[in-house]
Protein backbone atom coordinates (compact mmCIF):
# COMPACT_ATOMS: atom_id res chain seq x y z
CA UNK A 1 0.00 0.00 0.00
CA UNK A 2 2.83 2.38 0.81
CA UNK A 3 4.45 1.64 -2.55
CA UNK A 4 1.23 2.49 -4.37
CA UNK A 5 0.94 5.78 -2.48
CA UNK A 6 4.54 6.63 -3.31
CA UNK A 7 3.99 5.89 -6.98
CA UNK A 8 0.86 8.05 -6.96
CA UNK A 9 2.67 10.96 -5.32
CA UNK A 10 5.58 10.66 -7.75
CA UNK A 11 3.27 10.60 -10.76
CA UNK A 12 1.42 13.61 -9.44
CA UNK A 13 4.66 15.54 -8.95
CA UNK A 14 5.84 14.67 -12.45
CA UNK A 15 2.51 15.76 -13.87
CA UNK A 16 2.75 19.07 -12.04
CA UNK A 17 6.31 19.48 -13.33
CA UNK A 18 5.16 18.91 -16.91
CA UNK A 19 2.35 21.41 -16.52
CA UNK A 20 4.69 24.01 -15.02
CA UNK A 21 7.25 23.53 -17.77
CA UNK A 22 4.55 23.86 -20.39
CA UNK A 23 3.23 27.04 -18.84
CA UNK A 24 6.72 28.54 -18.72
CA UNK A 25 7.25 27.77 -22.39
CA UNK A 26 3.91 29.28 -23.21
CA UNK A 27 4.80 32.47 -21.39
CA UNK A 28 8.10 32.86 -23.19
CA UNK A 29 6.61 32.47 -26.66
CA UNK A 30 4.61 35.02 -28.53
CA UNK A 31 0.92 35.51 -27.74
CA UNK A 32 -0.09 34.36 -31.22
CA UNK A 33 1.24 30.84 -30.68
CA UNK A 34 0.11 30.58 -27.02
CA UNK A 35 -3.21 28.90 -27.72
CA UNK A 36 -1.68 26.54 -30.30
CA UNK A 37 1.08 25.33 -27.96
CA UNK A 38 -1.33 24.84 -25.07
CA UNK A 39 -3.58 22.60 -27.15
CA UNK A 40 -0.68 20.56 -28.46
CA UNK A 41 0.81 20.05 -24.99
CA UNK A 42 -2.50 18.92 -23.53
CA UNK A 43 -3.09 16.34 -26.20
CA UNK A 44 0.41 14.82 -26.22
CA UNK A 45 0.59 11.02 -25.75
CA UNK A 46 2.86 11.40 -22.72
CA UNK A 47 0.37 13.59 -20.95
CA UNK A 48 -2.41 11.06 -21.59
CA UNK A 49 -0.20 8.27 -20.33
CA UNK A 50 0.40 10.07 -17.05
CA UNK A 51 -3.27 10.76 -16.68
CA UNK A 52 -4.12 7.10 -17.09
CA UNK A 53 -1.37 6.15 -14.63
CA UNK A 54 -2.64 8.62 -12.07
CA UNK A 55 -6.20 7.33 -12.44
CA UNK A 56 -5.02 3.75 -12.04
CA UNK A 57 -3.05 4.63 -8.92
CA UNK A 58 -6.02 6.44 -7.42
CA UNK A 59 -8.19 3.38 -8.02
CA UNK A 60 -5.59 1.06 -6.46
CA UNK A 61 -5.31 3.33 -3.45
CA UNK A 62 -9.07 3.34 -3.04
CA UNK A 63 -9.21 -0.47 -3.30
CA UNK A 64 -6.44 -0.86 -0.74
CA UNK A 65 -8.20 1.45 1.66
CA UNK A 66 -11.42 -0.50 1.28
CA UNK A 67 -9.60 -3.81 1.78
CA UNK A 68 -7.86 -2.48 4.87
CA UNK A 69 -11.17 -1.38 6.36
CA UNK A 70 -12.69 -4.78 5.64
CA UNK A 71 -9.75 -6.55 7.26
CA UNK A 72 -10.28 -4.35 10.30
CA UNK A 73 -13.95 -5.41 10.37
CA UNK A 74 -15.31 -2.13 9.05
CA UNK A 75 -17.73 -1.41 6.20
CA UNK A 76 -18.89 -5.00 5.74
CA UNK A 77 -22.46 -4.11 4.84
CA UNK A 78 -21.84 -4.18 1.10
CA UNK A 79 -20.26 -7.66 1.08
CA UNK A 80 -22.07 -10.85 0.15
CA UNK A 81 -21.62 -14.38 1.47
CA UNK A 82 -18.80 -15.21 -0.92
CA UNK A 83 -17.03 -11.97 -0.19
CA UNK A 84 -17.31 -12.56 3.54
CA UNK A 85 -16.06 -16.14 3.13
CA UNK A 86 -13.09 -14.90 1.11
CA UNK A 87 -12.40 -12.26 3.75
CA UNK A 88 -12.58 -14.90 6.48
CA UNK A 89 -10.10 -17.11 4.61
CA UNK A 90 -7.71 -14.21 4.23
CA UNK A 91 -7.98 -13.40 7.91
CA UNK A 92 -7.37 -17.03 8.89
CA UNK A 93 -4.33 -17.23 6.64
CA UNK A 94 -2.96 -13.98 8.02
CA UNK A 95 -3.67 -15.15 11.56
CA UNK A 96 -1.88 -18.43 10.83
CA UNK A 97 1.14 -16.51 9.62
CA UNK A 98 1.06 -14.34 12.73
CA UNK A 99 0.88 -17.38 15.00
CA UNK A 100 3.69 -19.10 13.13
CA UNK A 101 5.90 -16.05 13.53
CA UNK A 102 4.96 -15.74 17.20
CA UNK A 103 5.72 -19.43 17.87
CA UNK A 104 9.08 -19.08 16.14
CA UNK A 105 10.01 -16.07 18.27
CA UNK A 106 8.87 -17.79 21.47
CA UNK A 107 10.86 -20.90 20.61
CA UNK A 108 13.95 -18.81 19.93
CA UNK A 109 13.56 -16.99 23.25
CA UNK A 110 13.09 -20.27 25.14
CA UNK A 111 16.22 -21.75 23.56
CA UNK A 112 18.17 -18.62 24.49
CA UNK A 113 16.90 -18.83 28.07
CA UNK A 114 17.91 -22.50 28.26
CA UNK A 115 21.36 -21.62 26.98
CA UNK A 116 21.77 -18.86 29.57
CA UNK A 117 20.46 -21.20 32.28
CA UNK A 118 23.08 -23.78 31.33
CA UNK A 119 25.82 -21.17 31.55
CA UNK A 120 24.59 -20.04 34.97
CA UNK A 121 24.49 -23.67 36.16
CA UNK A 122 28.08 -24.20 35.03
CA UNK A 123 29.16 -21.03 36.85
CA UNK A 124 27.40 -22.22 40.02
CA UNK A 125 29.14 -25.60 39.80
CA UNK A 126 32.51 -23.89 39.40
CA UNK A 127 31.82 -21.64 42.39
CA UNK A 128 30.80 -24.65 44.51
CA UNK A 129 34.00 -26.43 43.54
CA UNK A 130 36.09 -23.44 44.54
CA UNK A 131 34.24 -23.11 47.85
CA UNK A 132 34.88 -26.79 48.62
CA UNK A 133 38.58 -26.37 47.83
CA UNK A 134 38.79 -23.35 50.12
CA UNK A 135 37.01 -25.26 52.91
CA UNK A 136 39.43 -28.17 52.60
CA UNK A 137 42.39 -25.79 52.68
CA UNK A 138 40.99 -24.11 55.79
CA UNK A 139 40.52 -27.46 57.54
CA UNK A 140 44.06 -28.52 56.61
CA UNK A 141 45.52 -25.26 57.94
CA UNK A 142 43.57 -25.64 61.19
CA UNK A 143 44.82 -29.20 61.61
CA UNK A 144 48.43 -28.13 60.99
CA UNK A 145 48.05 -25.28 63.50
CA UNK A 146 46.77 -27.66 66.18
CA UNK A 147 49.61 -30.10 65.49
CA UNK A 148 52.21 -27.32 65.77
CA UNK A 149 50.69 -26.11 69.04
CA UNK A 150 50.79 -29.63 70.49
CA UNK A 151 54.44 -30.08 69.46
CA UNK A 152 55.28 -26.75 71.10
CA UNK A 153 53.66 -27.84 74.37
CA UNK A 154 55.53 -31.17 74.37
CA UNK A 155 58.87 -29.46 73.67
CA UNK A 156 58.24 -26.95 76.46
CA UNK A 157 57.59 -29.76 78.94
CA UNK A 158 60.70 -31.70 77.94
CA UNK A 159 63.38 -28.98 77.91
CA UNK A 160 63.33 -27.64 81.58
CA UNK A 161 62.42 -30.92 83.26
CA UNK A 162 65.51 -33.06 82.59
CA UNK A 163 66.88 -32.99 86.18
CA UNK A 164 63.41 -33.25 87.57
CA UNK A 165 62.70 -36.32 85.50
CA UNK A 166 66.02 -37.81 86.62
CA UNK A 167 65.06 -37.33 90.28
CA UNK A 168 61.66 -38.78 89.67
CA UNK A 169 63.32 -41.81 88.08
CA UNK A 170 65.56 -42.28 91.15
CA UNK A 171 62.57 -42.07 93.47
CA UNK A 172 60.82 -44.62 91.34
CA UNK A 173 63.84 -46.94 91.61
CA UNK A 174 63.88 -46.57 95.39
CA UNK A 175 60.23 -47.38 95.62
CA UNK A 176 60.72 -50.36 93.38
CA UNK A 177 63.77 -51.64 95.43
CA UNK A 178 63.30 -51.01 99.19
CA UNK A 179 66.68 -52.63 99.92
CA UNK A 180 68.39 -49.60 98.37
CA UNK A 181 66.73 -47.36 100.95
CA UNK A 182 67.81 -49.59 103.86
CA UNK A 183 71.46 -50.09 102.81
CA UNK A 184 72.68 -46.67 104.01
CA UNK A 185 71.28 -47.34 107.47
CA UNK A 186 73.12 -50.64 107.67
CA UNK A 187 76.39 -49.03 106.61
CA UNK A 188 75.89 -46.33 109.20
CA UNK A 189 75.31 -48.96 111.87
CA UNK A 190 78.54 -50.67 110.97
CA UNK A 191 80.55 -47.41 111.01
CA UNK A 192 79.31 -46.40 114.54
CA UNK A 193 80.59 -48.94 117.06
CA UNK A 194 79.17 -47.15 120.05
CA UNK A 195 75.64 -47.14 118.83
CA UNK A 196 73.22 -49.46 120.56
CA UNK A 197 72.22 -52.57 118.73
CA UNK A 198 68.67 -53.49 118.24
CA UNK A 199 67.49 -56.84 119.55
CA UNK A 200 65.18 -59.26 118.01
CA UNK A 201 62.11 -57.70 119.58
CA UNK A 202 63.32 -54.21 118.83
CA UNK A 203 64.43 -53.34 122.45
CA UNK A 204 68.06 -52.54 123.35
CA UNK A 205 69.83 -53.57 126.50
CA UNK A 206 70.37 -49.98 127.37
CA UNK A 207 66.73 -49.30 127.12
CA UNK A 208 66.02 -52.30 129.40
CA UNK A 209 68.42 -51.02 131.97
CA UNK A 210 66.78 -47.64 131.85
CA UNK A 211 63.42 -49.20 132.34
CA UNK A 212 64.64 -51.32 135.30
CA UNK A 213 66.22 -48.28 136.97
CA UNK A 214 62.96 -46.46 136.72
TrEMBL record:
Ranges for domain K-box come to 47-140
Specify one Pfam family: K-box
Map out region (Disordered) in residue numbers: 180-214
Q: Mark the transmembrane ranges.
A: none
A single Gene Ontology CC annotation of this entry is: nucleus
Q: Name one GO molecular function term.
A: DNA-binding transcription factor activity
Which UniProt keywords are listed? Coiled coil
Query: Which PROSITE patterns would you find in this protein's record?
Result: K_BOX (PS51297)
Coiled-coil ranges from the UniProt annotation: 47-101
**InterPro entries per record:** TF_Kbox (IPR002487)
The protein's name is K-box domain-containing protein
Task: Tell me what organism the protein belongs to.
Answer: Eragrostis curvula
Amino acid sequence: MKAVIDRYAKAKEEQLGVNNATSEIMKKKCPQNKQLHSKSSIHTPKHKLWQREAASLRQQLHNLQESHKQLMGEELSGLGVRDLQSLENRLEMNLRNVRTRKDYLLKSEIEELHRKGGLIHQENMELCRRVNIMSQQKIELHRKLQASEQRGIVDANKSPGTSYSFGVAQDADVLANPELSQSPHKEGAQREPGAPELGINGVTDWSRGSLVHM
